[in-house]
Amino acid sequence: MPTTSPSGEGAARSKRADALRNRQTLLDAAAAVFVTSGVDAPIRAIAARAGVGMGTIYRHFPTRADLVVAIYRHQVDTCAEAGPSLLTDADSPLTALRQWVDLFVDFLVTKHGLANAMQSDSSGFDALHTYFLDRLVPVCAQLLDAAVDADEIRPGTHAYELMRGIGNLCIGRDSNPRYDPRRLVELLLRGLERPRSS
């Protein structure tokens, strides 16, 4: 019975690692393009940003819906993984919360085109929404709890409510490119802060 040589296993592992890196590069590039240009951005713009040919994108993601869903999941995972890192690295829990909300807004800008890109696949959209809630609500709650414990924000804000409020503030960007949701999101976050004693 033929066996795989150790060098063959190493080459296969290296190929898989390269393929994963390439996919991540594509997803990062596509997410950046979608944030600035929406989910209808030309595939050639994504290919140019990723430094690959359009054929490479279609090989990984045969349809635009496949690409949008992959970006959605990628951004959810990125947001979820960023929360604990930001808490560790930021100057304060409130700073970590602000940085996380900034990532979340980027994600929401992309998310708004998701329903159109998926068209009639409502069950797929529902599954992604559940994935979004399961991954992100606990992370947002952790950031809020840390900021409350540090006495930087008032207690009582629920993660889902905050995320829903931020989502509602992001909706207007689709119809008006001059509308900057980040300004209103910043006002919302300021409203959570504990007044500083003078």
Commentary on this structure:
This protein is mostly helical. Helices cover 75% and strands 0% of the residues. The chain has helices spanning 6-37, 43-50, 54-60, 64-89, 93-111, 114-118, 122-149, 159-170, 181-192. It starts with 5 loop residues before the first helix and ends in a 6-residue tail after the last helix. The model has no long low-confidence stretch (mean pLDDT 84).
Question: Which characteristics define this entry?
Answer:
single chain; 198 residues; mainly alpha; 9 helices; 75% helix; globular
Compose a concise summary of this entry.
By secondary structure, this protein is an all-alpha fold.
Mean pLDDT: 84
Strand segment tally:
0
Listing every helix as H and every strand as E from the N terminus to the C terminus, the arrangement reads HHHHHHHHH
Q: How helical, in percent, are the residues?
A: over 70%
Distance between the first and last residues' Cα: 79 Å
**Shape descriptor:** globular
